[in-house]
Amino acid sequence: MNNYARLALFLIVLALSVGLLSSAINSLGEIDKESLNEDVTVISKQVSNPAGLTKSNEVVNVTGNEPGKKGPLFFIRLQPLTRFLRKRVAVNYSSGTWSSNVDAENVEYNGEPIPANPDYMSVIRNTQFFVKPVITLSGFVVVAQDTQHVEFNTSLLQYPEHGTFESPEPYKDAYWVSYRAYNQPESALRSSAPVLYDGGTQIPDDIEDRFRVLANEITLGKNSPFEKYRAIERYLLENYNHTEDFTGPPWSGVDPVEWFLFNERKGIATHFNTAFILLARSIGLPARGVVGYRVDPEAEFQYVLPQQVYFYAEVEFANLGWVIFDSTPKKYMEGDVEINKTITKTNITGNDPFGVKGEEFHVWGFVKTLNDTDVSGPQIEVILKVNKYDVNETGSVVGVGVIEDGLFNVTCTAPAELPVGDYNLIAHTISNREYKESWSDPPIKIVSRTEVTISGPHRIYQGKEITYRGAVYDALTGEAMVNRTLTMNVADKEVQLKSDRTGRVDYVVNITERGGYNMTLSLPEENFFLGSSDVFAVTVIPAPPTAKNILQLLLSFPYNIILATSVALTVGVVAARRKKADDFPDERVPLQKVKEGVGFEDDVPLTYTSYEEGVVKLFNRFYITMQRIYPEIEDTMTPREFEATLIDRIPQDAYAALNDLVTNYEIAMYSNIPLTKDDFGRTTATIELVIELMKNVR
């Protein structure tokens, strides 16, 4: 047989061998890509943020309704001895809107005492009170008229011309306010003159004439400026109705305060005190507005609610200081005498069965007098205490409301830092000028939400063991829940698992049937913890062929006969072409020694011909880097054994990233599933993330 005939026979035998090998591999099964379930269950987490109130750049709208009845903004301890607290000053008025004087100068304030005005008369009282925000506030801080000291935790901007203080950052920390009250007898005020300042007599031209005519009628026969101010104030108090049930101008272009004075004759505080300021200004008497809060001057403790936002007027008199004017009809006026208080009884008639840490719950009931008359007006606070009889336990205030028509319904929030357990839910009616305090105290449970997670590959091989890791922790604090019994359910099998000291459980999965499965890990509800579960989608695919499988097939009949024949013919062809031994050189060139594996710190360029190869090489580099840090990581570890060893040495933030990295490696190494550029990029980013997170623990 000539050389060409032998070559042709060799090619025929080679083709038959390749065909047999392909048949053997195909007979072991092929991957059905349609059976891969790539939808993964995702549990969403919600978060929430507190809102700041009263920014420094806001304006005051005269026609805006008074704020609705919501939760408290802050509380005050110690008697403020004034009914009016201030935040910012309103100087410029136009078409129903007040704004501050943008040209007002400010200076940095760091808690230094503010000296008394040398032009004013003697101080008759120095007063101090404590302010604690309940929510995060922003902008101007709450102070009093003629504040002399603010003990704040950061620097403030002080506006000396306005007597106000602004915080550059949102704030929630408590602070102290000290202020002085000047001696201002009426006899001295009658003989004094108001101090003129820039913008103090500004009034829109289109309403000035009509306001001046009315102001002159009101002040007819009054000699001193102070008497004229008082006359305007009294006129508004006696001739107009204070109500939120007003309609305002029927068409645009009409000033709302002009409509209030000459047409509707009813409105809210901004109508009354804006009218007072503009009437005074129309006859040359300076006055300005102040945005603040109206509070109880005698209360040792009180919450301040959004509906207590108030707009009032003030005038500076030479040698006497600033004097407050309020022309809005109210039940109590500054300086009212104490009246006898009525005894009350408080009763919680219902509440949510438990409070979840960091979340809202509700408490409702009634407050009546001893003769069963409905109580209206006082505030009611809800407190959580472990022992209601322990006078030294202050408890946690979780909600505040207002009693109306004998009823209250308070939305509370269980503090996130509060330990779970049994508590007493105490409703405390806070005393005011009219009613005495009273209490109600049923029990309630404070519980916490839990969160269960599963980590591991979403694709696994048929009949192969894969270890999945679960974890259970407090959903609010992230603390591991130790020694808890969890239930794992997968492929119609259910097992009980105990969480270790880190809150984790491990479960080995071996599924023999192809298809999609849902793996469920759940924690039942306990005494003070709500139950939770996680559902994890798993797809089982055929295992890749192994050398042992192929060899068994080729050694069975009739493939063994064909294989033997093919081998014999191949050997004959090779022997026919073999050269003599003398044709080979005496010494062979030795193979180059294989270079040791490199890690990321070796800075060797990465080369690859497919994304699968690139992912494998990235993982191997990461593996070597970790071996150099942790010598106990052995060369023979499986990817999941490597993950289990490493996971105890990395921060919890890196768990998910490490699991994703191992999963991508398993897909690239053991499956026929092609990887994409995005998969490769995600693997690179994941390795960088894990290494970065580990810097904090190495």
- Under the CATH scheme, the architecture of one domain is Sandwich
Helix/strand class: alpha+beta
Could you report the average pLDDT, rounded to the nearest whole number? 81
> What is the strand tally?
35
Rg over C-alpha atoms, rounded to the nearest angstrom: 41 Å
DSSP helix fraction: 10-25%
What is the CATH level 1 assignment of one domain? Mainly Beta
Biggest β-sheet: count, sense, barrel? 6 strands, mixed
Number of helices: 12
Overall 3D form: elongated
Low-confidence stretches: 13-57, 331-339, 579-595
CATH homology group of one domain? SOR catalytic domain
Strand content: 25-35%
Kindly report the CATH topology of one domain.
Immunoglobulin-like
Give the termini separation: 72 Å
